[in-house]
Amino acid sequence: MYRKILVPLDGSKTAETILPHVANLAKHQDATVYFAQVIEPATRSGIINLDQEQEVTFQPQRLDDVKKYLNGLKAEYEQQGLAAEIVLLRGIAVDAILSAIEELGIDLLAFSSQGKSGLKQAIYGSVSSALLNRAPCPLLVADTRTSISLETNNRILVPLDGSQESEAIIPHAEHIAQLYNAKLSLVRVVRSANHKAAFVDLDQEIKKEIVPEHLLSQLGKSQEIDRIQDGKKYLLNWQNQLQQKGIEADVNLLYGRPIDSIAAVAEKVQPDLITMTSRAKGGVEQFVYGSVASGLLHRLARPMLIVHTGKPPVRNFA
Predict the structure, then answer these.
(1) What is the dihedral of CA 274, 279, 280, 283, to 10 degrees?
(2) Which of 93, 111, 145, 236 is most buried as measured by Cβ atoms within 10 A of its Cβ?
(3) Are 140 and 165 members of one domain?
(4) Is the pTM for the entire model greater than 0.85?
(5) In the beta sheet, which residues pair with residue 140?
(6) Sequence-distant contacts of 210-217: CB under 8 A, at least 24 apart
(7) Residue 170: per-residue pLDDT
């Protein structure tokens, strides 16, 4: 599924945070890893003098230095028995990377959510956020705080919301689970703006007493119980389907706020990887599928596999 993995770097140790995660996956996937670096124009904006011929100039980066850096990473991977190539890109960072994805037929784009260009913990208005929003292929993203098990990803967290869009992540989660002989932890959150996060015991009968009194004024207990029961049936159905394929899965049903609830499950099960779908957005909505994925990436020190379900916005010069 991920035969060609593109890893854009900027020469910083921060950007290299993603490398162990890529090596971990490539060892199980028999993939080729493409290490890339972008040489950007020296000037990205300004007033054009129409009386003079204009020529695009690039930052004074010696190609030999970039090649040496990328070839060093390539050699390290090859020593581990992994296939690797180097790619030098020229132009605006985001557009150059997107072009490489198309031209090379990349199956997975992997990068750190922070880099030398001053990115903060969150993924606001940067190369990372642009790639998260616009890349046409699945993404493997790691925060710089993320630790890793170099041997295996033995627990994968899979948040679902009941929609077909969210379920598009399941084939990816199944694939990785089979590579690692891993266990899936499915999560469904019954949304409640007035409750942070509460686990529902699926081994017990769902009774009205589990619904907080403050929800009465909004939905009524019977309606809230119906939502929780539907969530239970949904999770157990997926658990049964996965088990029929030989994939071990546990289920976690919560009511509360999505980010708080998913974070609570992550704290409980300590997953090695979180897999989610996103819907690509443009303009002022350039976050990945609402604030859930960006909030989790900011909050949890866990690598995330993100798969877009919507059509990425038209490319521009971001």
Answers:
(1) -120
(2) 111
(3) no
(4) no
(5) 110, 305
(6) none
(7) 96
